[in-house]
């Protein structure tokens, strides 16, 4: 059986590789002669284009000199495009929607679907690992997946240490220590179980730190940096050991496979909404989108399509090779494909963050913008902070989408086993969502701090001026999400035996949560602008001696408290699941609805923060480079924005509900119908 | 394994306490410790079987407790001078807490019997979330987008053809549009103390060149009291690129109007502020002015009449050593009964800037920059109230109100007619 399949598969992969090669050759080769430098060192094709224009102009001038005062020939027929030249821009309006609102909706939907397809694969591949039997091939793949996970975790811990404690190059210490800690421990444990969990933490910490130190370019080693590296190395070692020897749980495999089916459909929607976004931009903001795309010729003509196509191909391979590779006992290869999918996905995310951050904080000096290389334009000062923020944000988003999938499927299931399973899915989704959400405020803080550093006016517009009330709503949403997560834990714990012993302490934590949410919500003033405008009450300002309640020190303390209480509750929850029997499938029906509420809040918050970021450019498409001169260059009111965002989120949820039905529920219904005739088990389900 | 968890727990707990101590001092660490002890005690409570409650059983204690608590919060917030909106917010959150705890003890929902049940519940969940978010965004304070649009549609500042008051008004607009209010109050206006209050600091006393340099190179001279690391980096350095020449000129014209003829300039970051009466640097510079050695006030020599050591050199000159000296009676219609030690700032300023007719005490305010006259006054006071013998600083005056500022103009307290 195996032998008969191999040639076919090899042919398939070879053909695929050939097609890819031809595609890349065809698309890259026209550019190669254009520059004497390597394409990787000089991406500035726009600069070349300008240089060519200049040369042409010079030649024209020379010709004119030679001809002297010869009569000029009318060459306008060469550039006259016909009656279309008289076309004038008009503001478009339809059913209360405007140019901006169309663009807003299309962009937001695109980002939501994109977040799903970039966020979910990160933990899908880890779940797949958790669900796979530890064959030799799988263990090989686990070395790679451990390093991948360690890179993500190392970056998050490192950047948090860099910003909160002020450790120079904390992100590099975190990344290298965690990655190498994971690599060494995974490798040493590959052949047989060489180390227990403590030894793994120790080896990871020591060797991760020893490798991270020379790789991090600093003049002096600080104690705090070494402690950070040790912690990261230990985390890498612990994770590697834990994952390498975890008992394979088939539930994870099933969950990963189900989410992958949804990812496949969402991929199409990402492309659809991306196309919609581009079309809308071409109608509504033609000049701007032309300028933006032409500012990144290499990115938009070569890198982006190449990455997108590669990611699409790998995604389809990942989705459709799941069962065949399982049956062929080649799970390790499938896991490696999943990691490749993530690597391409994250590269794509980072590539498109370039133009997004260029719009917000174009690389200075602005006078050099025309001669600046494309790479310099991509790597703005806020590029990496946005990459970190989106990486973590997408993870959180993915976690809460799993909650929604779990909740929907729980409600749509009538079998006991199914209900037990989807109850567990909800638990896992919440676990992922909350765990990744905990460092999210730090990532947001890093991003906004960098914006302040770039141009404080943008920061002030967000925090103190027309977007101050928008930020207040953000505080409310974060408080709501933490509260909902805790309510879910409470409801879940009621179905665990002997969990009552934690309830008094948890209730005390809930009091702290309400107090923290109150502080987070407390504004400096109850009017929506920096200075009161006509119709606003100028007395609605906190007196100076109470202003500390609205300052960052209070907000940070409130955030710390929210995170800590949630973390403590999670510890209680975990202890309860380990020490008492969990009656999966018997959750209070309130639980799934809390999860749906939580998912809705998360997606609403994500859309809201996108709105805040976009509006913070004020009347600029590209801050201080390309002005918005359309009639809608002002910030819409809070009420209008709130309503519009809600409508977008509704649209997304309607689509997602349909996708979950089509991707997971419908195939089950079909399978049930033909079950009597097809008895052979599927390994992946 | 258990010992690992205990060690990690202890390290995490101590780190948390240390962080709280670093941020809030002993109170923060104490509060953190109290929370930890409370958690420990609550975990020791013998578990009670959770019982299903009806709605009435659920709220019969919670509601009265929260009602009392809301009342206490309302009164306490009022006592602490929280404006009414904050009182409403705190009470509203008390009821949010009530809803939270009611939900925790909510009776277990019945299982869905039909598709209609879960459709109904899902829609209710979405409606609840949407209702909260739409409701909150609609009810929070709003701005009128038309006002921003009007601002954006305004032509850029061009000073050609503008007269004094119009230039000042244009400068204020520049100040506002560049969000200077975010960090700087101007007397009563604005709501942040990140940077100095340019009104009470009286930035208008300084020269145009100094103000311009402070805008373009904000990190060259740090305002007293704002020397901390955060404040040093707070003022952006890009205004030189952002502002046109006309905008900068207009802005400086506006800032030059920020003076207070009734109070000594105030320095420092709230709440650690002081006036120049207690500022040793200002007093030291005032001594140079008083003794006629300050390069910026060449020709002004207070000591020639009042004496270098405070012993008057001329008959009739005010003896600053005697704190019980009365005010002059030589100005018709302008006399106070206050003794020298009780002179308000406005009187010091008035006597020095406007002088005393028919005496050698000229209207120095017409000749010399007022910046130095205030400093000379701060020094003169030390003759009867030496700096090293003071037990407390003079109180920082309340920030002038809008009405007071208007009255300075109507009463003609400024020498400059433009103001």
Tell me the total number of β-strands of chain B: 2
CA(first)-CA(last) distance of chain A: 21 Å
Order of helices and strands of chain A: HHEEHHHHHHHHHHHHHHHHHHHEEH
Helix-strand category of chain B: mainly alpha
The outline of chain A comes out as globular
Secondary structure category of chain A: mainly alpha
Largest sheet of chain B: 2 strands, antiparallel
Low-confidence stretches of chain B: none
Q: What would CATH call the homologous superfamily of the largest domain in chain B?
A: Cytochrome c-like domain
CATH architecture of the largest domain in chain B: Orthogonal Bundle
Oligomer state equals: heterodimer
Number of helices of chain A: 22
Give a quick set of tags describing it.
heterodimer, A: 685 residues, mainly alpha, two-stranded antiparallel ribbon, 22 helices, 1% strand, disordered C terminus, B: 419 residues, Cytochrome Bc1 Complex, Chain D, domain 2, two-stranded antiparallel sheet, 16 helices, elongated
In short:
The complex is a heterodimer of chains A (685) and B (419). Chain A has 685 residues and is mainly alpha-helical. Chain A has 22 helices and four strands.
Explain the overall architecture.
The complex is a heterodimer of chains A (685) and B (419). Chain A contains 22 helices and four strands. By secondary structure, chain A is an all-alpha fold. In chain A, helix 5 packs parallel to helix 7 (223-244). By secondary structure, chain B is mainly α. Helix content of chain B is 50%, strand content 2%. Chain B is built from 16 helices and two strands. In chain B, a hairpin with a 2-residue loop joins strand 1 (266-269) and strand 2 (272-275). Chain B is elongated, with a radius of gyration of 31 Å. At the A-B interface, helix 17, helix 18, helix 19, helix 20 and helix 21 of A face helix 1, helix 4, helix 5 and helix 6 of B.
């Amino acid at each position: 059986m195996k032998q008969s399949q191999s040639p076919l598969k090899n042919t398939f992969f070879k053909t695929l590789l050939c097609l890819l090669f031809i595609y890349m050759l065809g698309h890259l080769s026209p550019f190669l002669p254009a520059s004497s430098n390597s394409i990787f060192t000089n991406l500035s094709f726009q600069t070349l284009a300008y240089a060519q224009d200049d040369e042409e102009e010079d030649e024209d001038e020379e010709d004119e000199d030679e001809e002297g005062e010869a009569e000029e020939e009318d060459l306008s027929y060469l550039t006259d495009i016909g009656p279309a030249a008289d076309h004038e821009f008009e503001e478009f309006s339809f059913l209360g929607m405007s140019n901006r609102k169309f663009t807003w909706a299309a962009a937001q939907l695109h980002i939501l679907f994109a977040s799903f397809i970039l966020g979910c694969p990160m933990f899908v591949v880890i779940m797949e690992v958790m669900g796979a039997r530890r064959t030799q091939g799988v263990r090989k793949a686990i070395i790679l997946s451990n390093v991948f996970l360690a890179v993500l975790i190392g970056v998050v811990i490192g950047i948090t240490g860099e910003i909160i404690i002020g450790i120079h190059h904390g992100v590099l210490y975190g990344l290298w220590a965690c990655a190498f800690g994971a690599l060494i421990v995974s490798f040493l444990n590959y052949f047989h179980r060489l180390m227990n969990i403590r030894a793994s933490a120790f080896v990871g910490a020591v060797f991760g730190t020893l490798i991270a130190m020379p790789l991090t370019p600093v003049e002096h080693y600080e104690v705090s940096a070494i402690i950070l590296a040790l912690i990261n190395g230990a985390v890498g070692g612990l994770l590697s050991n834990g994952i390498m020897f975890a008992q394979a749980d088939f539930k994870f495999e099933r969950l990963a496979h189900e989410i992958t089916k949804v990812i496949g459909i969402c991929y199409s929607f990402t492309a659809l909404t991306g196309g919609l976004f581009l079309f809308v931009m071409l109608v509504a903001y033609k000049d701007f989108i032309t300028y933006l795309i032409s500012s990144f010729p290499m990115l938009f003509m070569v890198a982006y399509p190449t990455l997108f196509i590669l990611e699409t191909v790998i995604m389809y391979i990942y989705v459709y090779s799941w069962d065949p590779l399982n049956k062929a006992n080649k799970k390790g290869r499938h896991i490696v494909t999943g990691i490749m999918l993530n690597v391409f996905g994250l590269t794509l995310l980072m590539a498109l963050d370039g133009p997004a951050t260029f719009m917000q904080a174009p690389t200075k000096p602005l006078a050099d913008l025309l001669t600046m290389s494309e790479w310099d334009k991509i790597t703005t000062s806020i590029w990496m902070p946005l990459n970190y923020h989106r990486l973590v944000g997408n993870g959180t988003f993915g976690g809460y989408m799993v909650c929604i999938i779990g909740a929907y499927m729980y409600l749509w299931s009538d079998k006991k086993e199914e209900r037990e399973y989807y109850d567990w899915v909800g638990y896992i989704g919440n676990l992922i969502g909350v765990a990744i959400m905990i460092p999210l405020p730090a990532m947001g803080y890093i991003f906004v701090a960098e914006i302040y550093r770039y141009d404080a006016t943008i920061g002030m517009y967000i925090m103190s001026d027309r977007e101050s009330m928008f930020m207040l709503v953000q505080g409310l949403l974060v408080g709501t999400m933490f509260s909902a997560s805790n309510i879910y834990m409470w409801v879940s714990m009621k179905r665990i035996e002997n969990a009552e012993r934690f309830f008094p302490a948890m209730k005390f934590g809930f009091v702290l949560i309400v107090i923290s949410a109150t502080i987070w919500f407390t504004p400096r003033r109850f009017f929506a602008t920096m200075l009161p405008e006509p119709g606003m009450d100028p007395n609605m300002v906190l007196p100076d001696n109470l202003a500390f309640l609205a300052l960052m020190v209070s907000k940070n303390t409130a955030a710390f408290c929210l995170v800590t209480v949630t973390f403590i509750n999670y510890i209680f929850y975990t202890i309860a699941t380990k020490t008492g029997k969990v009656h999966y499938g018997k959750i209070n029906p309130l639980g799934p609805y809390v999860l749906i509420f939580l998912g809705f809040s998360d997606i609403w918050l994500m859309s809201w923060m996108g709105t805040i970021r976009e509006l913070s450019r004020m009347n600029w498409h590209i801050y201080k480079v390309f002005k918005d001169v359309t009639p809608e260059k002002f910030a819409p009111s809070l009420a209008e924005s709130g309503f519009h965002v809600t409508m977008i989120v509704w649209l997304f949820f309607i689509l997602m509900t349909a996708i979950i039905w089509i991707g997971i529920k419908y195939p089950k219904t079909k399978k049930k119908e033909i079950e009597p005739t097809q008895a052979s088990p599927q390994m992946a389900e | 394994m258990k010992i690992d968890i205990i060690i990690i727990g202890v390290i995490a707990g101590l780190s948390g306490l240390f962080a709280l101590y670093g941020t809030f001092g002993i109170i923060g660490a104490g509060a953190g410790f109290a929370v930890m002890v409370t958690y420990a005690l609550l975990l020791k409570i013998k578990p009670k079987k959770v019982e299903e409650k009806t709605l009435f059983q659920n709220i019969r204690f919670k509601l009265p407790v929260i009602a009392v608590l809301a009342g206490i919060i309302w009164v306490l917030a009022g006592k602490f001078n929280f404006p009414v909106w904050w009182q409403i917010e705190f009470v509203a959150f008390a009821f949010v807490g009530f809803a939270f705890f009611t939900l925790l003890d909510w009776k277990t929902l019945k299982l869905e019997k039909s598709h209609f049940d879960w459709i109904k519940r899902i829609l209710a969940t979405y409606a609840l979330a949407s209702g909260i978010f739409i409701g909150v965004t609609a009810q929070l304070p709003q701005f009128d987008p038309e006002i921003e649009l009007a601002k954006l549609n305004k032509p850029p500042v061009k000073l050609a053809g503008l007269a004094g008051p119009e230039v000042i008004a244009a400068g204020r607009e520049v100040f506002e549009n560049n969000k200077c209010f975010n960090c700087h109050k101007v007397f009563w206006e604005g709501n942040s103390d990140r940077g100095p209050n340019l009104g009470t600091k009286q930035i208008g006393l300084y020269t145009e060149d100094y103000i311009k340099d402070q805008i373009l190179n904000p990190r060259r001279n740090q305002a007293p009291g704002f020397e901390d690391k955060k404040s040093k980096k707070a003022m952006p350095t890009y205004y030189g690129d952002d502002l046109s020449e006309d905008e900068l000129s207009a802005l400086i014209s506006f800032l030059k109007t920020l003076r207070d003829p009734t109070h000594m300039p105030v320095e420092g970051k709230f709440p650690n502020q002081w006036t120049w009466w207690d500022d040793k640097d200002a007093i030291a510079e005032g001594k140079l002015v008083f003794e006629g050695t300050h390069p910026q006030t060449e020709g002004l020599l207070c000591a020639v009449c009042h004496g270098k050591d405070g012993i008057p050199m001329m008959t009739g000159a005010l003896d600053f050593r005697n704190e019980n000296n009365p005010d002059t009676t030589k100005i018709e219609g302008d006399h106070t009964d206050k003794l020298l030690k009780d002179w308000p700032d406005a009187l010091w300023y008035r006597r020095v800037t406007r002088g005393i007719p028919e005496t050698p005490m000229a209207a120095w305010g017409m000749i010399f920059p007022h910046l130095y006259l205030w400093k000379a006054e701060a020094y003169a006071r030390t003759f009867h109230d030496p700096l090293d013998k003071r037990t407390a600083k003079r109180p920082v005056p309340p920030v002038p109100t809008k009405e007071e500022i208007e009255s300075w103009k109507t009463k003609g307290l400024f020498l400059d007619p433009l103001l």
